[in-house]
């Protein structure tokens, strides 16, 4: 029987990406599947705190093993911004504006180093556990690619010459920050 894992999101892209990475052993559900539409206030100061806020809410509402994740783009030359504010840096989930703001702030800056980070928090009857993944790369000056979401069109991972948004989903999912965090989660579940 498949293990159900409730992902603390309404984002269909994220749900599909996680289902693809987890494979057939798990049945991924989301907040939408449980008709939970109350806004979860992410008022933590770190990726870890925000991931835990989401997972705890889901577990308390449903009693199901719940994974909260907080992901973002951390830019070296911007002192870590947008960081935990990645999704609402220039407009709430308006990634065109968010990308434009990052590119504007980096105008003339030679240091284009950045990394994507995902922190996942599992809350279940066994307690709270965290899993983290990072992909390092560089930001380019123009938007390239149609795939992916968020800052994918301006991010080229190290050892590649195309952006995340130019990669096939399955190629991105082999190396992504979310994939790394999920692999750590899977390893934890196997050892449980």
Short overview:
The chain is an alpha/beta fold and 192 residues long. The chain is built from 5 helices and 6 strands, in the order βαβαβαβββαα.
N- to C-terminal distance: 17 Å
What number is the mean pLDDT? 93
> How many β strands by DSSP?
6
CATH class: Alpha Beta
What ranges have pLDDT less than 50 throughout 5 or more consecutive residues? none
Number of helices: 5
**Widest sheet: strand ordering:** 2-1-3-4-5-6
Indicate how many domains the architecture comprises.
Answer: 1
How many whole angstroms does the radius of gyration measure?
A: 16 Å
Report the order of strands and helices: EHEHEHEEEHH
Q: According to CATH, what is the topology?
A: Maf protein
Strand percent estimate: 25-35%
The share of residues in helices is: 25-40%
**SSE class:** alpha/beta
Question: Do you know the CATH architecture?
Answer: Alpha-Beta Complex
The largest sheet, given as strand count, sense and whether it forms a barrel, is:
6 strands, mixed
Based on Cα principal axes, name the global outline: globular
Task: For this entry, give a set of tags.
single chain, 25% strand, globular, Maf protein, alpha/beta, 192 residues, six-stranded mixed β-sheet
